[in-house]
Amino acid sequence: MKHCPVLQFNSLAQALVSLFGNSVAIKRTDRVTGGDINKAYAVTLNTGDTIFMKANEKEKAASFVAEASGIFAIAQTGAIRVPKILCVGTDDGQEVGYSFLLMEFVKSAEPKADYWERFAQELAALHQADASAFCERDDGQKGRFGFFEDNFIGARPQDNSPSKSWIEFFRDKRLLPQFKAADSYLTSADRENATKLLDHLDEFLIEPKAPSLLHGDLWSGNAMAGPDGKAMLIDPAAYVGACEADLAMTELFGGFPPKFYQAYRAANPLEDGYEKRRDLYNLYQLLNHLNFFGQSYLNAVRSVVQEYVG
Predict the structure, then answer these.
(1) d(Cα 200, Cα 181) in Å, to the nearest integer?
(2) Which tens digits make up the pLDDT trace of 67-94?
(3) Which long-range contacts (CB under 8 A, 24 or more apart) does 22-29 make?
(4) Is 217 a catalytic residue?
(5) CA angle 125, 157, 42 (to 5 degrees)
(6) Residue 208 three-state SS
(7) Catalytically annotated residue among 91, 217, 235, 279
(8) What is this structure's pTM?
(9) Are 183 and 202 in contact (CB under 8 A)?
């Protein structure tokens, strides 16, 4: 498996006809709230179907292809539910062109009583699934960590070029590009500390026992209770890495309930010292927020760097 076999179309009308037949028509379009990058809609068709559509500028089409690839990869493991992808495409529109992603419309339900425990067990199963097929590229590049294509973390590009070493991958494909992008925010002391951290990363991180397919952006807003009351993952920034990176992200903005972490550790025990590595994994996310949202995240970035370099 090298590619996501997602259907791609050159117009929304063409996509709908291919998916639902020649007589299909849109009855109504309702804006769906949530998210700060794309516009989202519930699209009701005359067939009785309702589908979910994300839309953005035409130039953003690659981000929808990447999202579809991440969802496809997670679905391949069979470990945890994700929405069904219908297609991606672009449309010139009447006034301005746009890109779109169509997928099943998921009605959220009340979480089951054991929602958090089941979620943790299914996430552990995702992390324990064989991830080797997701790191081979068309040009022959292979590695234990990375992904079969580059994608996006939020709205910013994410380099997933394969690497044999997790520490090397996290340094060169995660932290280093973010520090470079953040250079205008950094003082000379910040740059010195960043260099020191990157040069000594092997003193703080460990190579995982096995690579894991990661969601890649696993905060509470990217998980929901599906119609069956069980967890469903959405909006991935998928790649193969250390499972600790996903778990750390769940703790960055408020965290999940303690029973989630207890159930996860029971299903997939962590290496000793995770708590000492957690903030370093989240430094990547904080740097990305700094580069996207601005200076309000600078002190958080400095605090984490200081935690490791003194």
Answers:
(1) 20
(2) 999 999 999 999 999 999 999 999 997 6
(3) 29/53
(4) yes
(5) 70
(6) coil
(7) 217
(8) 0.95
(9) no
